[in-house]
């Protein structure tokens, strides 16, 4: 059996540290989460964030905007939150309706409260090696690897996916840790060769169970980090001679096929997802501390 990289367990340890910090704060940090529309998956993610935040003593305002809100109305709301001194951090839950510009919306957030690290200002600071906030999923991935003492310096790492949210910032963080990083995307011709030669494979492509044993070498020395969260319908057990469809969450890696061929692997759910939430609130606490430093 491989080492299972248990994000829930690590999140619990991070929560203890954050809770001790927050207990000493007065007033308490506050995160404002803005969601546009009623996307079920988005709502579920927001509830997870709210639950975790409140468990460590952070106040969480869950602000729901109607799907037909205009861009100017949404930006006005964000500016109000920017001006509210009780709000330490602001995130806009993605995705947004197609009528709204993600770029304009995100860049309306005060960079000092942009705890997702997605504004142009914070993205540039991150690239320059002076990050105000590290994007939560990228931070969570690195913390998960380091928690289990998996070496990054001189490690050959394949990052599958180059999104602004996950792939690109994760690759940059790994390079800063001294890893030898190769980023693969849909047009990369020799992805399987690259992954087989890698010590660590990080998969963030949004395609369920795409990564099979063909991408893995045979000596059980590799670590696989699965960032994918894909909802799909599978057939459950029969009842009254009828097959029952059920919705399940699967990763970008075929866990059952790959797990016995690697040294360590993160599960879905329970791996990177919990780490992303924990990392977000590490950023919230950092934002609070930066905003309350005596002048």
From TrEMBL:
**What GO cellular-component annotations does this UniProt entry give?**
cytosol
What Gene Ontology biological process does one annotation of this record name?
methionine biosynthetic process
Supply the EC number(s).
1.5.1.5, 3.5.4.9
| Stretches assigned to the Tetrahydrofolate dehydrogenase/cyclohydrolase catalytic domain | 5-116
Which parts of the sequence belong to the Tetrahydrofolate dehydrogenase/cyclohydrolase NAD(P)-binding domain?
135-291
Q: Which pathway is this protein assigned to?
A: One-carbon metabolism; tetrahydrofolate interconversion
**Which InterPro entries does the record match to this protein?**
Aminoacid_DH-like_N_sf (IPR046346), NAD(P)-bd_dom_sf (IPR036291), THF_DH/CycHdrlase (IPR000672), THF_DH/CycHdrlase_cat_dom (IPR020630), THF_DH/CycHdrlase_CS (IPR020867), THF_DH/CycHdrlase_NAD-bd_dom (IPR020631)
List the keywords (alphabetical): Amino-acid biosynthesis, Histidine biosynthesis, Hydrolase, Methionine biosynthesis, Multifunctional enzyme, NADP, One-carbon metabolism, Oxidoreductase, Purine biosynthesis
Record-listed NADP(+) binding positions: 161-163, 229
Carries keyword Oxidoreductase?
yes
Superkingdom field = Bacteria
Q: Which reaction does it catalyse?
A: (6R)-5,10-methylene-5,6,7,8-tetrahydrofolate + NADP(+) = (6R)-5,10-methenyltetrahydrofolate + NADPH; (6R)-5,10-methenyltetrahydrofolate + H2O = (6R)-10-formyltetrahydrofolate + H(+)
Q: Which Pfam families match?
A: THF_DHG_CYH (PF00763), THF_DHG_CYH_C (PF02882)
UniProt similarity note:
Belongs to the tetrahydrofolate dehydrogenase/cyclohydrolase family.
Question: PANTHER family given for it?
Answer: C-1-TETRAHYDROFOLATE SYNTHASE, CYTOPLASMIC, C-1-TETRAHYDROFOLATE SYNTHASE, CYTOPLASMIC-RELATED
**Biological function:** Catalyzes the oxidation of 5,10-methylenetetrahydrofolate to 5,10-methenyltetrahydrofolate and then the hydrolysis of 5,10-methenyltetrahydrofolate to 10-formyltetrahydrofolate.
Describe its partners and assembly state: Homodimer.
Q: What is this protein called?
A: Bifunctional protein FolD
From which organism does this entry originate?
Answer: Candidatus Taylorbacteria bacterium RIFCSPHIGHO2_02_49_25
């Amino acid at each position: 059996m491989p080492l299972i990289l248990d994000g829930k367990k690590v999140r619990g340890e991070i929560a203890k540290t954050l809770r001790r910090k927050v207990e000493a704060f007065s007033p308490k940090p506050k995160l404002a989460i803005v969601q546009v529309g009623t996307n079920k998956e988005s709502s579920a993610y927001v509830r997870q964030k709210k639950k975790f935040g409140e468990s460590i003593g952070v106040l969480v305002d869950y602000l729901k905007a109607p799907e037909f809100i205009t861009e100017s109305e949404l930006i006005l709301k964000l500016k109000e939150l920017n001006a509210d001194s009780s709000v330490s951090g602001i995130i806009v839950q993605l995705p947004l309706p197609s009528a709204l510009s993600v770029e304009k919306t995100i860049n309306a957030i005060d960079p000092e409260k942009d705890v997702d690290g997605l504004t142009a200002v914070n993205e540039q600071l991150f690239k320059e090696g002076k990050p105000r906030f590290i994007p939560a999923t990228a931070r969570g991935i690195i913390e998960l690897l380091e928690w289990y003492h998996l070496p990054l310096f001189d490690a050959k790492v394949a990052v599958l996916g180059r999104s602004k949210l996950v792939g690109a910032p994760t690759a940059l963080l790994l390079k800063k840790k001294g890893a030898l990083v190769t980023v693969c995307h849909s047009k990369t011709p020799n992805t399987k060769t690259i992954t087989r030669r890698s010590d660590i494979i990080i998969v963030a492509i949004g395609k369920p169970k795409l990564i099979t044993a063909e991408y893995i070498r045979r000596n059980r020395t590799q670590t696989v980090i699965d960032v994918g969260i894909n909802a799909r319908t599978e057939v459950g057990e029969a009842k009254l001679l009828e097959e029952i469809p059920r919705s399940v969450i699967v990763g970008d890696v075929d866990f059952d096929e790959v797990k016995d061929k690697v040294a360590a692997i993160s599960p879905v759910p329970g791996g990177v997802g919990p780490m992303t939430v924990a990392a977000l609130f590490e950023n919230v606490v950092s934002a609070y501390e930066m905003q309350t430093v005596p002048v």
